[in-house]
Structure formats: C-alpha cells, structure tokens
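FAQ: What does the model actually see?

It sees only this:
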Amino acid sequence: MKLQPDRIDTLSVTGYGPGWIGVSGEKVVRSVVISSLGEQFEWDCVNFSELNPSHFARLADLSVELVIFGSGKQLRFIQPAWQTPLMERGVGMETMDTFAACRTFNILAGEGRKVAAALIIEA
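And it is asked to produce this:
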C-alpha cells in the first residue's frame, strides 16, 4: 500500500508492504525508530522475540510525548515492566501491528505531535 500525506514537514511513512516500509521515500527493510523530530535509527531486532528491556530504555531517551510500538505482522504486547523507563519520563506508549503503527504515526506527526514510532519489520 502506498500512503500519500497531504503535507508533513517531518519524517513520514510513505508506503509499506511485506518486509519493508518507506520512510520519506527511502525503502527500509530492517526494524527502525523514527520520530516527528527528525530522528531515525536502526532498532536492533529482527523479530518480536528478540526484544528486551534495553530496547525500550533507549526509547525513553527520545524527546517525545508518545511512542507508538509496531509489534510486527501481528499485535503482541511486551512485558509491562519494560515500559518503566518510559513511564518515569512521562512518555506514553501505544502498541499495534506495524502497519497500523505506520498510519498512526503519520496522523500524529502531521498534527505536529512529538511522537516516535518503534517499528519491527519482519521479513
């Protein structure tokens, strides 16, 4: 599916399909974190089972108010304790499958919200 935002002045998801997403026109095939503040970095996990608390502690260092966690092809939830670093900084987290997370990120970033998306991209 190809997504076309009306106008977003920050990173946005411009398309997605099995095993990839487009970030501002660039095809990304590995798990990634993007933020409406312009940050983008590889998220060191290939699938949900590789996640650990350090993945979410790193997200707490972003200057955002909300993290959207894209858990891969299906909706899966992390252990609640892994969210502690985010909660301690007042950062909310929502979990959804990766494609839903892409759409939600675009909506919130387009509204000017300080949001990040942590997206698992499974092959």
